Amino acid sequence: MTSTILIEVAAILISAWALVWMSQRILPWLANQLHGKKRLYTLALVPMLRIIILVAALVLIVPRVVEPTIQNMVATLGAAGLAIGFALKDYVSSLIAGVVAIHEMPYRPGDWVLVDGVYGEVKHIGMRTVELVTSDDTVIWVPHLKLWDNLIHNANNGGPSLMCVAEFYIKPCYDAFIIRDALEDIGLTSPYLQLAKPVTVTIKEEPWGTRYRLKAYPIDPRQQFQFVTDLTARGKQRLLELGVEFSQVETTKI
């Protein structure tokens, strides 16, 4: 390998690193200037561009390092396949799952997802892991490998709408229509409410009483916890004003 080839390879690597670095800073900054779906789709471009840049760099480097004959290419690909298959099985599986995730988009930056019992906002999609930030501001990295054998619960699926539910457990002796109307008023008067979406109350009888579920949408998915807190606090206050008694579920200790 000549010094000219080494310089060319180094130039390609530095250029690829610079492009990735710029995309990871410029695109998130641009996304923060946008709203709704435009913001989410702009954030989704970050991992896609990174893959394109890395693949392009690899395509440019390989012909310079290995003479592109059939024998050399077969030998190179065979050796790489064996190394990957035996030494990096789980890692490569996560990488492949990451490519599948970017293509199928089961989650995107800005989505609120539940993966393997962890619920949080997707902040960054890497080559091997997806970075989630929970409501307690805890950062969790989930390997894309979880995509193969776990259900992915996506609360907003790339859009600005996310349904929130506030639950109330009431003794069964009260007028359900009065309670339903009171809870609907609570939802309609919330400062976090997205007015374009419906406010509904569902009712279900349980052995211990009646379950009321107040369903509505916040203006921004990131407001979901403040929204549920607002609905719960004001809903409870209103029900107490109506003289309603809440049910308690007794648990048996073993």
TrEMBL record:
Gene Ontology CC annotations of this record: plasma membrane
UniProt-listed Pfam families: MS_channel_2nd (PF00924)
Record key words, sorted: Cell inner membrane, Cell membrane, Ion channel, Ion transport, Membrane, Transmembrane, Transmembrane helix, Transport
InterPro entries in the record: LSM_dom_sf (IPR010920), MscS_archaea/bacteria_type (IPR045275), MscS_beta-dom_sf (IPR023408), MscS_channel_2nd (IPR006685), MscS_channel_TM-2 (IPR011014)
Domain Mechanosensitive ion channel MscS stretches: 90-156
Location of the protein in the cell: Cell inner membrane; Membrane
Transmembrane domains' residue ranges: 6-28, 40-63, 69-88
GO function term, MF aspect, one: mechanosensitive monoatomic ion channel activity
Superkingdom, natural source: Bacteria
Topological category with respect to the lipid bilayer: Multi-pass membrane protein
Its job: Mechanosensitive channel that participates in the regulation of osmotic pressure changes within the cell, opening in response to stretch forces in the membrane lipid bilayer, without the need for other proteins. Contributes to normal resistance to hypoosmotic shock. Forms an ion channel of 1.0 nanosiemens conductance with a slight preference for anions.
Subunit structure: Homoheptamer.
Protein family according to the UniProt entry: Belongs to the MscS (TC 1.A.23) family.
Protein's UniProt name: Small-conductance mechanosensitive channel
Biological source species: Idiomarina seosinensis
